[in-house]
Design a protein that fits this description.
Layout lengths: L1 E8 L5 H18 L5 E7 L5 E8 L2 H8 L2 H11 L7 E12 L7 E8 L5 H18 L3 E9 L5 E8 L2 H9 L1 H10 L8 E10 L3
Antiparallel strand pairs: 1-3, 1-4, 2-3, 2-8, 4-6, 5-7, 5-8, 6-7
Helix pairs in contact: 4-6
Length: about 200
């Protein structure tokens, strides 16, 4: 799989235009194209100027094929005009993934952190084990994915979606989350950043 994120910083007067532009585009992604397999857009609740796209292609060739087509390229060109600067694209490795349902979750979060480089192998193993444990024990965690930055492999993002606030609080309280946090935090170069998001739309298949 070939996961990408695209981070856009929107002009103040273009936020709703960008949301509408994305809402019009997502059904086309779902109905007219075979890739990407997952395509979702979110705004940050505390900073609505931040619009983030998470997309996962089968492979890099699939991404290049779609990006070369006229309509996807036109969508991107029009979106770029609404941004304060050129959007930031990041390629990732997908470490582990839970995807259980259609996008009906109430709580959407992402966590960003950077660890000490020498800790990478150990952190990768713990992330895999942690997500496996969440999969087996927390059915109301609808989505949980961990990505490792390809260019800066000490940087990670976790994307999580919870059925409701009860499911989110349960995830915070369970012993495996506390154990994972106790392991991870001392290895971080800076404290993990927790971000709540509003889903703009999704083209899950």
């Amino acid at each position: 799989m070939f996961p990408l994120t695209c981070h856009c910083n929107l002009q103040d007067d273009k936020i709703q235009d960008a949301i509408n532009h994305t809402l019009q585009w997502i059904p086309k992604v779902r109905n007219d194209y075979d890739e990407p397999k997952y395509y979702e857009a979110f705004t940050d609740i505390e900073n609505p100027n931040t619009l983030t796209y998470f997309m996962t292609f089968s492979n890099q060739d699939a991404e290049k094929r779609i990006a070369s087509m006229d309509e996807p390229r036109k969508f991107g060109e029009d979106l770029y005009k609404m941004c304060t600067k050129e959007p930031t694209w990041v390629e990732h490795y997908l470490i582990n993934s839970i995807r259980r349902s259609k996008p009906d979750s109430q709580i959407h979060t992402r966590v960003e952190y950077k660890i000490k480089p020498e800790a990478i192998p150990d952190v990768l193993n713990h992330i895999v084990d942690y997500i496996d444990t969440v999969r087996d024990n927390e059915p109301d965690v609808r989505v949980y994915e961990s990505y490792q930055n390809k260019v800066e492999p000490s940087k990670f993002i976790h994307l999580a979606e919870f059925a409701d606030k009860v499911a989110e609080q349960n995830n915070k309280d369970v012993s495996h989350t506390k154990k994972f946090a106790e392991f991870l935090w001392p290895l971080c170069e800076q404290e993990p950043k927790f971000i709540y998001m509003t889903m703009v739309g999704s083209a899950r298949r």
